[in-house]
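Fig. S4 source data, part A: sequence.
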Amino acid sequence: MNRLLRPLCASLLAAAALAAPIAHAQTAAAPAAGEAALYRIGPGDTVRIAVYQSPDLSLETRVSESGLISYPLIGSLRLGGLTVNQAEAALADALKKGDFIKNPQVTVMVTQVRANQVNVLGQVGKPGRVPLDVAGMRLTDVLALAGGVTNTAGADTVVVTGQRNGQPFRKEIDLPRVFAPGGRGDDIEIQPGDAIWVDRYPVVYLYGEVQRPGQLRLERGMTVMQALATAGGLTQRGTQRGLRVSRRAANGQVQQLELSLDDTLLPGDVVFVRESLF
């Protein structure tokens, strides 16, 4: 029996020996992956520094454009590009190496974010610059900080521009799709320096024999029949036959089209309802 169990035990020990370095590598890599997801201090940020039991070393200062701060006893120290934990470790190490404090306990807090910001423009509650004070913020996070989209916003598309890997980046995002099943991937991560544009809602125009001619908000997938119903329907002299729509083509030319009641309207369409001859 022992001779039968001996090869099995040897195999199990070998598998454990192979798994140990892999598990160790995974454990060692975990902090690095987590560290990459943390906010990194940037030029223009304001940081508050406190050292335990050393109130004279407390300081609130702005990170220079080159990523440096000037700190008592130490002088210039680079914090730009560091996470808060890394900045605390760098300050503690500098104080310890200078033999100023034997075991310094340093706390760093970012009180104002100026480096990592995005521009949010258009139909939002609070247009302007929004700080990315947490790493990995997504489109919906930034829109929420900007006060959300207003009731004058277009229901469909939000445009995000910026740079990715040194190349110009532009993406049109169907905002309702983000909240649909499986649409989480469209809620893209926003990068510092991005610009987000929320356009005004699209419109169509109705004139002729309709109850309320004029500008009309174009809802997604709105048909000619739905637009006429929203405008109060036809007058007694109006007719559904021969509905004419003026539509601007991609080359800028205006086309005259005859649409049925079930045809879908496009932004900027001008619908003319004729007068009945009988």
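Fig. S4 source data, part B ends here. The chain is about 25% helix and 30% strand.
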